[in-house]
Amino acid sequence: TKRYSITVLPGDGIGPETMSVAKDILKLIGSLEGIEFGFQEMPMGGSALDLTGVPLPDETLSAAKQSDAVLLGAIGGYKWDNNPKHLKPETGLLQLRESLKVFANLRPATILPQLVDSSTLKKEVAEGVDLMVVRELTGGIYFGKPRGIGTNENGEEIGFNTEVYASYEIDRIARVGFETARKRKKKLCSVDKANVLEASMFWRNRVTAIASEYPDVELSHMYVDNAAMQLVRNPKQFDTILTNNIFGDILSDEASMITGSIGMLPSASLGASGPGLFEPIHGSAPDIAGQDKANPLATILSVAMLLKYGLGEENAAKRIENAVLDTLNKGFRTGDIYSAGNKLVGCKEMGEEVLKSV
Amino acid sequence: TKRYSITVLPGDGIGPETMSVAKDILKLIGSLEGIEFGFQEMPMGGSALDLTGVPLPDETLSAAKQSDAVLLGAIGGYKWDNNPKHLKPETGLLQLRESLKVFANLRPATILPQLVDSSTLKKEVAEGVDLMVVRELTGGIYFGKPRGIGTNENGEEIGFNTEVYASYEIDRIARVGFETARKRKKKLCSVDKANVLEASMFWRNRVTAIASEYPDVELSHMYVDNAAMQLVRNPKQFDTILTNNIFGDILSDEASMITGSIGMLPSASLGASGPGLFEPIHGSAPDIAGQDKANPLATILSVAMLLKYGLGEENAAKRIENAVLDTLNKGFRTGDIYSAGNKLVGCKEMGEEVLKSV
Ligand SMILES: CC(C)[C@H](C(=O)O)[C@@H](O)C(=O)O
Ligand SMILES: CC(C)[C@H](C(=O)O)[C@@H](O)C(=O)O
């Protein structure tokens, strides 16, 4: 039997609840597919801060590095919102991404026919949306230096950050973008602000250069402000979107809300080698934490991405995706995706139903 | 009689068409209100590039500076898209904003009951949206230095920009935000990325400090990724949004598309003193230029903002706004806002109908 070690980071808020459900499903899939999963559960985010004083303890990081894949629940909460930067849960997440060198963040935004009513967009606009955001995750303004709060030459206090991309960083994420598009509808839209920013002009130049390696993929460019509009106007025009860290943060959240089911959407963060990081797109939702109200499907689908992109276990991944679809077809819904005529369930019961459908 | 000198910059694409209509309306309003407008029409953007070799000729800038207000049509087009940075139409616009020191960009996004069907959002979500984005316009990553394309210490080619805000820049735009909210529903939401960026932490600190001057305004903070989602999920939650240059670029375009009538939306850019700059939010739409298809209402409503915010002529502004509403009530629609049962008209005819309704 194959063995994989999975670092499990339940994190904060609803993280532990959805993670507990997701682990059960991974175990069942393992037993059915003849795969043994070893789980190492470690503290991360706000709960790690409370426990150890830092958001990403060394033990957590080294466990993550030694494992085959990392599964994260969610991090953050009001409690730590006013912490100084190095003691924010978010800083732990950024350190984890950087240390694992997972530069490619894949964020699907798909509208399932069963859930088209959850979108705030009109049915005819929402129906059939199926796009993938490929976001650069370990560069740009998130990590660029110099950065800080200081004083300028006039003695005025300033806050500053640096948006910076080296050619190799753009080239490798562009290749992920083209490869991803190649497996989809072969349309890649690179989003930047090249009419204003040099970092974007350089981005556009590099992406255009890499395009010659992928003659079968159709490349287009769009300004970020226009992309933010077009996602609302006609999201179906997009297949694969390639963009930098900060624009990807904004556009992938916008795209996920367009599906109306942010509680459904997983993500994968991959490097050139080493374990990938898999997490739902939604946050830790502190207001509903501990009430068995969370939608576990995004974490469950993150497990499917882990199997597919992290371990190459496509069969096992497909089984999970199908079980989720079956469960939705049977009418089970958590509060966030509930509509009249369906069965309202909590986090645990939703998990049990998916287990039954596997 | 009062006299005002207006610098008119028709610009590119549909700019000249919508501007010609808007000027007629301003003239009529002037004669009715006993105001004399002197117009100085100057080249700007791509048409200035073709004519003079630069996107913002010195003569244009000095005319603008000496006038009481500047009215801009639209700039840009495919023709100049691959020009080097200093020869892009957009660079002329950035120079104009910087030279006029118009640091406060007011961008309303309102859904008129007559046009609620034009939104891609469901009626119950779109109905009643009435928000104002207050965007910082002369700072941040648009203007920050260092910037460029160069080489890093490892000899790798890089593209880089600097996001930087000094305290005085944040304080003055924050005050505009609070003042604007005070005249509206007294709710100000400041949007940043303070969980990651020092420039945003500093922004949040300064905005919070300025809040003590406005105890009657309710201040909240939101991360930009969440704001991009919330605009889709429930845009009605927002009254006034305060944000930096790049986030404002993205969010105001998203917000305007949510109204479904980007051809309707004006903007005002104001400084501490000197002439303001007034322009529609939409671009130059080169694909429909010269075909009498453009919607002139955004430019006409920019004239209303010019009268109200630029010249303090509130009566005259109100007359224009009412004339636009009347024209819509009579069922006149350009293609972009057309729906069955209404009368499809071109740019000129729409202008004539508004003239009749003044
Ligand atoms: C929590 C935060 C640091 C993070 C980011 O900005 O990347 C989150 O918004 C995300 O998109 O995963
Ligand atoms: C044309 C461009 C430079 C400009 C900007 O980015 O500010 C435009 O998008 C806008 O929002 O007015």
TrEMBL record, chains A, B:
SMART domains: Iso_dh (SM01329). This is 3-isopropylmalate dehydrogenase. SUPFAM superfamilies: Isocitrate/Isopropylmalate dehydrogenase-like (SSF53659). Gene3D superfamilies: Isopropylmalate Dehydrogenase. Its EC number is 1.1.1.85. InterPro entries: IsoCit/isopropylmalate_DH_CS, IsoPropMal-DH-like_dom, Isopropylmalate_DH. GO terms for molecular function: 3-isopropylmalate dehydrogenase activity; magnesium ion binding; NAD binding. Its cofactor is Mg(2+); Mn(2+). Binds 1 Mg(2+) or Mn(2+) ion per subunit. It comes from Acer negundo (Box elder). Pfam families: Iso_dh. Belongs to the isocitrate and isopropylmalate dehydrogenases family. NCBIfam families: leuB. Keywords: Amino-acid biosynthesis, Branched-chain amino acid biosynthesis, Leucine biosynthesis, Magnesium, Manganese, Metal-binding, NAD, Oxidoreductase. Homodimer. Residues 5-354 form the Isopropylmalate dehydrogenase-like domain. Catalyzes the oxidation of 3-carboxy-2-hydroxy-4-methylpentanoate (3-isopropylmalate) to 3-carboxy-4-methyl-2-oxopentanoate. The product decarboxylates to 4-methyl-2 oxopentanoate.
